[in-house]
Design a protein that fits this description.
The chain is α+β, with helices and mostly antiparallel strands. Helix content is 35%, strand content 22%. The strands form four sheets. The protein has a five-stranded mixed β-sheet. Strands 3, 4, 7, 8 and 9 form a five-stranded antiparallel β-sheet that branches. Strands 12-19-18-14-15 form a five-stranded mixed β-sheet, with no helix packed on it. The chain is globular. The termini are far apart.
């Protein structure tokens, strides 16, 4: 096969694949219960990832990890489609079989990873395969040379048809994905009125928020709050049919509707939560005001049996966390089944209609979004989602601090007094002190903002007399128990990153 002929065949296969994928995504948007093939394959990839993969991917892409995975899936589908287009020139039956195999793979992924509806998934898979085969056959015929037909005319027909086919696929896929996202957002916006809390959060004390340009806000707005989870598309939860079930090693199983949940006493708390994948100096940490029902109140309704040593919360999509029962029952920790975030119903991206907020624990063992089930069991009986994938079973948040400003961005700082500022956190223990070192010199005390509580981070500021030249700034924190943040660097896996955050700056 000549190079131009191969390129024409590859274009035919690529366009057919784009159309089939777009139609499949449109079906997912149009018909509730039909799974998105991109989401299904992505979920399967996440389920099968080896230990350490999460750490690597989050370190590489941060909060764009899901976008990167979806782009990779779409790219692979396009590449396979192009390859099948080349195969179709000589072996059309084999190429058709390849299209069917791709659709079957998406079906299998949806049934296994998403527990999707069998009939809807099979029906959507059949339509996808049919569209792909028909498009490939049509474009293959245009790619083949026609006797007595000028070559330029044939190329123009193929290019025009392939472009139109691919464009239809892109539009269909974009529309389908938009409909899926809109469906979830519609549930978020349809949240019922939530009664006022009986115990408002303590007011933010004077001096808690430091006036330093570039410092992270003391309370992070909802639309700026970090998001790390395994959901490629946030679940669409029907508030009318949603239930929270408390079961397992309990005296009685309890099932609550949303209305019944919010009729329980609501309290407000400022709590800082963090992702275990956060690198030293990273931004996968945030502080917000959460409103919800005490987890102990919900557990008390069911009656926790002696010997129940682990709380296992589950999301509507099957994701699980797990933490010691004693963490919330033997200490005065206000773990919450949260229904509001910063005085608004939970945004769908952050767990609408309910999620868990457990002070002092990394999110992967506690902060379950789209909460649907709480099981009481033992620590030995069950390993939550991330534990078999190489992460620690118990994961208290480590003491950490971060320099927000200045950052080594290439900007030359002026000589003289320069504010060095950032945040430090050790939820449950609080922050006693923050210190800054310049050029590996002695540690010097920074000024702390007033703490909202031991469950939240604090802002800090150090006024540095900057001299010309390159400099290295480092920060460390001391928590409320007197333990000083270690300088020993570790990666996030298996139980959180350790080490001092430092930045390189230039003063002119």
């Amino acid at each position: 096969m000549t190079r131009p002929a191969a390129l024409r065949s590859a274009l035919a296969g690529l366009s057919a694949a784009v159309l089939a994928l777009g139609v499949a995504e449109l079906l997912a948007g149009l018909v509730p219960g039909v799974p998105s093939p991109v989401v299904a394959i992505g979920a399967a990839v996440i389920e099968l990832q080896p230990p350490g993969a999460k750490d690597f991917v989050v370190a590489l892409f941060g909060q764009n990890d899901k976008l990167a995975l979806e782009a990779l899936i779409v790219g692979v589908v396009g590449a396979v489609g192009a390859a099948l287009g080349i195969v179709a020139r000589r072996r059309p039956d084999a190429a058709r079989a390849g299209v069917v195999a791709m659709a079957s793979l998406a079906v299998a992924a949806a049934l296994w990873a998403l527990r999707a509806n069998l009939l809807l998934t099979l029906g959507a898979g059949a339509i996808t395969a049919l569209v792909g085969v028909q498009a490939l056959d049509r474009l293959r015929s245009l790619a083949a040379p026609v006797p007595d037909d000028p070559a330029d005319a044939g190329r123009r027909r193929l290019l025009a048809t392939a472009t139109l086919t691919g464009l239809v696929g892109v539009v269909a896929g974009t529309l389908g994905r938009s409909m899926l996202a809109g469906r979830a957002q519609a549930q978020d916006q349809a949240a019922i009125a939530i009664p006022p809390s009986i115990e408002p959060a303590n007011p933010i004390p004077p001096g808690a928020a430091l006036d330093v340009p570039g410092i992270t806000p003391l309370v992070v707005p909802n639309d700026q709050f970090y998001r790390i989870d395994t959901a490629l598309i946030v679940p669409s939860v029907d508030l009318g049919s949603w239930r929270l079930t408390i079961r397992g090693m309990v005296d009685r199983e309890v099932v609550l509707t949303f209305e019944e949940l919010v009729d329980l006493p609501l309290i407000e708390r400022y709590v800082t939560i963090a992702c275990v994948s956060n690198e030293v100096g990273g931004d996968l940490v945030g502080n917000a005001k959460w409103t919800g029902v005490r987890l102990t109140d919900v557990l008390g309704m069911a009656g926790v049996r002696p010997g129940a040593t682990q709380v296992v919360p589950r999301s509507v999509d099957g994701w699980t966390a797990g933490f010691p029962t004693a963490w919330v029952t033997e200490q005065e920790r206000d773990a919450l089944v949260a229904v509001e975030m910063n005085d608004e119903p939970l945004p769908v991206e952050h767990g609408f209609p309910a999620r868990l907020i457990v002070p002092g624990l990394y999110g992967y063992v506690s902060a379950t979004k789209w909460l649907s089930d709480i099981e009481l069991t033992t620590l030995e009986a069950f390993d939550a989602y991330w534990v078999p994938r190489g992460w620690a079973k118990e994961a208290p948040i480590l003491t950490q601090s971060r320099i927000d400003t200045p950052r080594g961005t290439g900007r030359v700082l002026p000589t003289g007094r320069v504010p060095v500022a950032g945040v430090a956190w050790a939820p449950e223990r609080g922050i006693r002190a923050v210190e800054v070192s310049v050029d590996d010199g002695p540690w010097q005390p920074a000024r702390l903002g007033a703490a909202i509580s031991d469950q939240t981070w604090v802002q800090w500021r150090f006024d540095w007399d900057a001299t010309p030249g390159p400099h290295r700034l480092a920060v460390r924190a001391t928590d409320g128990t007197g333990e000083v943040q270690t300088a020993f660097r570790t990666p996030p896996a298996p139980d959180g990153a350790r080490g001092h955050h430092s930045v390189q700056v230039v003063v002119g």
